[in-house]
Amino acid sequence: MPNKNIIIVGAGLSGLTAIIKFLQNASTNPSLQFEINVIEKRSLNFNRRQKLINLNKREFQNFHDFPTSASNYWDGYCKQLFDPNDQYSLNHEKQLVHKVYGIMPEAILSKREKFLRKLFRQDYSYLHPFTNKKTFKNFSIKELQFALLEHINELQNSVPNVEINWHVESQIRNIDFETKELTVVAGDRTYLLKFDAIFNCEGTKAETTDIINTSLPPNVKEKFAFEKIDFPLLYHCAVRLKLKPNVIPQEPKSLIKFFSQQKNKNHHLAKKFKKIGFVSPTPPNLFIIDDNAYKYEFEKEKLSLRIFVASEIPKKIYDIPDLAERKKIIIQWAKLIASIRYGISDEFFEFDDRGETDHYQINALTFANELKAVNRPEITLPNGVVIFLVGDANLSNFYPMGCSALFGLNEAIEAVELICKENQSKDSYVRLFNFYRLHLVNELEAMDSLLHRDFKAEIEEQKLANLNMNP
């Protein structure tokens, strides 16, 4: 097989997974020769604060067409990738233990070992210490990206038939599909890269997809086009909070006692919601909360409870033009959501600014969640060039379902397999995408009754508002 030039746009979870799959295939087949150029508009410091709420295959047991292998889900995939020989476990003190070398000193744990420790410490049957509700395993996407990147760097050393070049803080300017060259801009530098296949893992913004569409040859009649999924446009915030220091005891037993004493006290939430723009006889119900409370099962540790709130917000809050004022309001909103979840006053929470800088204001964000899906996830050109849209680039993320990261994992793996098998039909990739799209749509249809909410009426209301704005 001749050398193939691969472009991967985006070093998120899908992009990194694709790189690993290329390395794995090439390590067992020396005839595979790849030069992989990774184009990432940010740095490899991965300044993201999102969480991956990891859904296990048990959660999809009623969907018989979902992948059945544990390695098709993030926890099983990471276990197989970072501990293929089953060498690691936890001891009774929840320390990471190597079955040959004994306890692993925390000071020298690799990124992958730290990730495994977190993976092992959480359990699907675990009851949240403050809410007594079953919790999902959860990962920091940033921590997972670092672990995957570390694995790539190590694996690359033993796979000489794959060359990986990282183009950080760079973007594609244009693409020439006839010469199979694209132009990359990085700061004040502009240069060309060869390609035979493009993996667009850029997320939902479709900036690279737009460039692809405008660059496709005239004889390619069908381009990538997005259709809105029949669901209202929702507005959301994502905010990181923590418990106030020196107000609540930090010893685990004392803290659990505090929560039990405070729980379900009336803190006049309705009035507080109304004050910041939400008027409803019932509290908002389209939100998720994740925290680090799983650490409380090993009581030796003193813990600052850190909380991630992703919640729907009213449009009037999203539309606040002053960014500082909007940030202030969504932080208060997130505190009220946390108050609902934990049953204690919103006064016990404060904004968590850890990791924020003047350049990265990333712990209190707002965004509009418009659901859309591409008409086709792959295009193969007459000259053999293959273009894949992977993960959120082909189907919008809808965070209350927590499935999109799982979709991107399996799509990246399937797309790489098809590139490594020359002249292979891409039908299996299209089928996988269509199945995930159908699953999302079917789940959305069930949300009206689940949330006691008439989404169809909201869609019509939004359409009418758009007509009034653009007569």
List descriptors.
34% helix; 471 residues; alpha+beta
Write a structural description.
The protein is an alpha+beta fold and 471 residues long. Helix content is 34%, strand content 22%. Strands 8-2-1-12-21-20 form a 6-stranded mixed beta sheet, with helices on one face. Strands 14, 15, 16, 17 and 18 form a 5-stranded antiparallel beta sheet that branches. A 3-stranded antiparallel beta sheet has the order 4-5-6. It is globular and about 70 Å long. The model has no long low-confidence stretch (mean pLDDT 89).
Secondary-structure map with pairings?
Elements: E1 4-9, H1 13-28, E2 34-40, E3 51-54, H2 74-82, E4 88-90, E5 96-98, E6 102-103, H3 111-121, E7 137-140, H4 141-156, E8 162-168, E9 171-176, E10 181-186, E11 189-194, E12 197-200, H5 207-215, E13 226-228, E14 234-243, H6 252-262, H7 269-275, E15 287-291, E16 306-312, H8 315-318, H9 323-342, E17 349-351, E18 364-369, E19 372-374, E20 378-380, E21 386-389, H10 404-420, H11 427-445, H12 447-450, H13 455-469
Parallel strand pairs: 1-2, 1-12, 2-8, 12-21
Antiparallel strand pairs: 3-7, 4-5, 5-6, 9-10, 10-11, 13-19, 14-16, 14-17, 14-18, 15-16, 20-21
Q: Strand sequence of the main sheet, in spatial order?
A: 8-2-1-12-21-20
Radius of gyration: 24 Å
Secondary structure: helix percent: 25-40%
Mean pLDDT: 89
* Overall geometric form: globular
State the end-to-end distance: 57 Å
Biggest sheet descriptor: 6 strands, mixed
The number of helical elements comes to 13
